[in-house]
Fold these 4 entries.
Entry 1:
Amino acid sequence: MVFPRKRRPSNDALKRSSVAGRAHSCDRCRGRKTKCAGTFPDPCAACVDAKQPCIYSDSEKRVTVPERYLHNLQAQARKAVAAQSREPVANPNPNPNPPDNIAKDVDIVAFTGTDNWVAGRQGQYYYMGNSSSTYIANRLNPTTETLAWHMYPHYDDASWLRRTVVDGQLPQLPPYEFARHLYLAQHAYIGTIFSFLSEDDFNVRLKHVYSRLPILSDKDDCLIYCQVLLVFALGQMYSVNQWTGNDGPPGFAYFKHALKFLPDVHEDSSILFVEVLSYVGYYMQALNRRDAAYLYLGLALRMAVSLGLHQEVLDQNIGAFERERRRRVWWSTYSLERLLCVTSGHPISIQDDDIDVSLPSPTEGEHPRLPAILACYTRLSRILGRIGEEIYRRKQKSGTSLAASVQNIMNSLSDWYRQIPDELRLQPADWEKEVNREGVSLYLYYYQCINMTARPLLLYAVQRQTQRPTTARWEDGLPANMVSIIHAAIAAARSSTSILKDAAKFNLVATYGFIDGEQAFSAALLLVMVNIAFPYKEMDAVAMNTSLLVLQGMAGRGNKYIRACHSLLTKIRDTIKSRMVGPEGSGDRSNSLLQEQQPIVYPLPPDQSSQLSPTHLLTPGAQNRSRDSSRPVDLDDDVELWTEVLDSIGIDMDRHWIETALMAEESMAMESV
């Protein structure tokens, strides 16, 4: 007779039973590694006999709950505490004199780190880091709505998200000459700051596409067709520049067909493949598919690394033209990845220490202007990577290290400005006529780097100001260098707004351009924060209203995400509308300024007599009241202040924060009655 074999319990089952047994053991028996006969809450016999306390530390039942549920409970708790702090308390001996500062009795809720997560449509979560402007805007949000770019896709047809079988059929192609016009349209916006496809190469590939149908079994042939269709998509997006009533933004039809020819990433790598992946990632940003853009640009960067584009070629058989092509494709992919990562709050994919390739330089017979633009833009991308890593992502151990990082980055920005070739410098008179788009791109990028560097300092100053007497100057008590950097950031935001306003007159603002939208939103957000907490200043109030008009113009042309950004900032602006009334007659003056040409603030070259730093972004006549920000930071007396700035990087600025500013404003209004 054969008896069935007993099944041996698995290791996991033994572990579970062992853990379960230990969970009901008291601390004393567990420490002695003896069997505990007790049951919570009754003491065990061993502890009773030994006359020792019997403690069951792990007797509480542990329940696993979704993280979102925990976040909601924490948010409700913060709101409850805030509501209790605002309720009037009966005072048997009321003081007839009102307090000097109502805001002193209102605490700023500490950052809990739970607001970096945004729920998606399918229940998944998306992460937004502290360097994201969207994250900061949500902290300012006076409503219960959440701003997230993935909630505003720029398309109605979602069938393209699933790849279909390629049949080799092309969409209706534009006329040949108009196809060349589409190339020039996209080149004017992105071809000067990212070098993926030269005009000569495009003309060769265009003839190839118009001559026959693609060979689907040939990977390179499919890449050529994919790239040309992507150029059509980008060219149409920039030339039409507004929603035309189709199921997506201009060029969306070409983009969907281009994806059908995109090879799988496991196929052989090539520089052409890197170029195509970068184009796909860029257009994904225009669709507000930043998650997909992050993946495609990450693939492009890793493919470039696998091809060794991040290192100089040692093979002497490779000609100068091919070497330069490798450099430009690498730095273009690098800049795209840096822009998306830092502005979305993600870590960068490669450290600068791992890169050993020269910056773009002119080839034989080439005009030096184009490589100079690429080199200048690349240097800013390297600085932006430092901003993301050293200020927002690195866990600073002290305020001293943060101060040193901020100062070093501001010095690097100052050096960048001094090294701009004369032919790329813009003067105020240049904006009276149409300027080249690359000038708009360079200066907006420069100002954005200043804003992101100074943002933690500004957040700290804003939070600090809401807790002080309303009559106090926000500069009081702050080190001169910190004040200078904050002033530079405010001036940079005004400058960005002025450039965008003037560029819009010549249709040089990209409605669906991810970069333009991000930079416009970042500048508007900073100006709104300044007008919330700082005393009324007509120049800042006018700049804020102008920045909102710029966003409104982009929203009116069909950018759904910018429309949501504009709506949020408008709601925040409306909560402080009462404080937008300045001295006598200033309201009328502000309205008139909105109708006039707002003078642009430009970084001035260093003045040998006053040793001014160009990062001051001085206005005419401001030389006498400027400070020198190029001197080293004196940290002897300011370490504690810089340490407090660390907490402002992830500051919690929700409705309670706004109400604090409003209560301070009401206090000032009461005192003036």
Entry 2:
Amino acid sequence: MLNPNNDSLWAMPVPAGEVRTPVNPPTSAQGAVATGIATTVIAGLAVAVRIFTRGYVVRNLGIDDFLVVISFILGLVFSILEMKALQVGSGNHIWDIPAPNFKKLLIYQFVLTITYSTSVSFSKLSILTLYLRLSPEKYFRICVYMFIGIVTAYTVAYQFYIIFQCSPVNKFWMPEIEGSCIGKMGPMMTLSIANIIIDIIILFIPVKVILPLKIPLRQKISLIIIFAAGGFVCAAAIQRTILMPRLLTAVDYSWEVSGQVIWGFIEVNAGIICASVPALKPFFMRYLPFILTSRLLSSSSQPESHSTKLTPFSNTNTSKKQRSKRIMESYELPSRDDLPNQRGEDDDQAKLWAAKTTIKKKDGNNSDDNSFESFEEQYLGRLGRRGMATRGDGSAHQGDGISVITDTKVSYGG
């Protein structure tokens, strides 16, 4: 054990009125480990389910999926390094930390700041890339691309400052060597406030696309809530910014940093979770459908008259409209990834939450061949049920399982 009376062996002499505690020193980071483990595990599960859903269920991995994976990997590195930092004195009084450990702590803090900001930026880029699939509208996409550029430029500026704030660079963790460092308060507060502003704007970008959608108000509200879940990330960033001035001016830096550690865990992993949530609906539709269909089952159990009662293969326009409406009300958050790819439609990307209806009109005999994909075929068929279905247009799908043949013809009198 180090001699507690030899100040040269410790990071800092004991201030007046304080006592050095070389064994089991007090800590301000009691909740840091639990917060880090819990948020990292939840983020990891969210990313794993997202990749499984996009790669196996939907079979349509996109660049936003790879970006969120990178964000999680960096977030995992951040969490591991934070645990290491806690072992060498983060959360302890600076005068209770041996000098060699304090040097390690500063190195960890240097790398942690870089991994933190990069992970957060990649989760933002994942969300913005997802936005590009929401609408083909020109000005919306220009806005998204502009913010992709802003986030990228912000990340480069942040990393440049962190790496080169001291000259030479290693003076950051070796304050005893010759050199100089620029002030921290101004640049760090500016970067932190800019981060909050970017987060808030990113939250409001999809509102312009969601509000014009011709879907029930209740469904619009649900969609907005999903995207606004990112507001929790903003709240974490705001809390970190509030704590920052006290940290940057503190003599007992290692004690004051605990708040930043806890909120850093929350911000990094909450960003990853929020970036993953919009892509999880197909997973629940296939493996946990009761979560999404409880309303459908409840409404279908109510007695209906013979003229309006729906059957799985109803062949009236009224029943089709009612079944379509019921599906729309039951699935709060459909996305275009759950439906067959409609290549050739100009507004395909905008029709995220529309039920698919195909109508083919034959001229000459004044008759229509109408086909409507049933609940199972539309939502579960391409996800795992394989069979053969022949529609009025003559198309067929074949595979193992139940064969269903429907051919509905409606003739109009003269």
Entry 3:
Amino acid sequence: MCNRLLVVEDDKDIAFMLRDYLSKENYEVLIANNGQEGLKLVRENQVSLILLDVMMPVMDGYETLSNIREFSNVPVIMLTAKGQQFDKVIGFKKGCDDYIVKPFDLVELTLRVKAILRRGSINVTSNDLVKVYKDLKINKEDYSVVKSGVDIKLTKKEFDILALLVWNQDRIYSSQTIYEQVWNESYLDNDNSVITHMRNLREKIGDRVKESIYIKTIWGVGYKVEKDI
């Protein structure tokens, strides 16, 4: 069964070009011409990855992505004519997985799609109740964390943050995305809950911000756990 991709792009020429090219790469491609149509298709279909334009009428890409992250962790690649660092930071904070600037090379875009889908398939096949990351053994069944044979006592929120990152290695999570997924509430810009819990979590597992062993800080963007090779 081929992967189903969703292209959310208001420029029909670009949307059809992407559909035609990616279809030849054995992907099924759905098209939405604005953010609202895209949200509807994500809710109604099992989508493997979204190519999401930033500048669109009705609902721009950033708002669309925020809405998607309320109910789905589907990988998202942002497409934009803007290349400023500021725009990239916004995208990663909202929860995108990659970012490519127009005009883009179709071969490069396809390679990025394949890389993200390959990473996702690894995560899915290993999505069991227990994971070992470096010297940590994390068990979702009893919410236990063991480091080199020693039990680490975490709160439920600390455990959920660690599990979210370890089960989704190499993916950057902003404070907003972590808060909305772990607390299951809307995020407020002045809320320091994630920072506080992250500091406590790091202290308990013996991690450091500047010399990170487990959780890497991507300054101005968020946090990630690098893939354990």
Entry 4:
Amino acid sequence: MGDLETVKIDVEQGVAVLSLDKGLYPLDVVYGAAYVLIDRAYVLLDRAPDGRFLIRLQVKEGPLDTKTLTALAGEMQNELLSQALRRKITKANKQLLETIVTRAIGGATGALTPGVFPEEDDLDFLDDPLGIAVPWEERFSKDAKKDKPTDAETTPELAGPGDSGGFSPTKKGSEP
């Protein structure tokens, strides 16, 4: 059996290539680890002819030296372990997590029990205690417009040039 994991550093191309045995990490763990590094490195996931995962990492910014590429490969290895452990814990606690979420969602909506609001039983959908249910035709018909006062009747007189802003201690037309 060959190596489970190998790392090759190519400083000339500025890449680090990790080769992982296909049975070492599930594919979703590899995706999760790659996602964590995409802000700092370009990540290319591939498969070798023998089925091994190939992870090609290239630094986005910074020096392209052996130290930087080795550190990036080490971060990827650590993240692979972290994602694998996270997956294991999630699987072990799946039932507990589902129960908690179900209860949280069920409790948020509240229990629907009949008769909680007794005043609803007394109301009929045709009742209009506030007097706001006016048919459209009645509200906007031409006959209704005749009954409404015009703008000239309801708008106060505005001050003109040379006026004192419309204020007068005496009414207009009743000057002494």
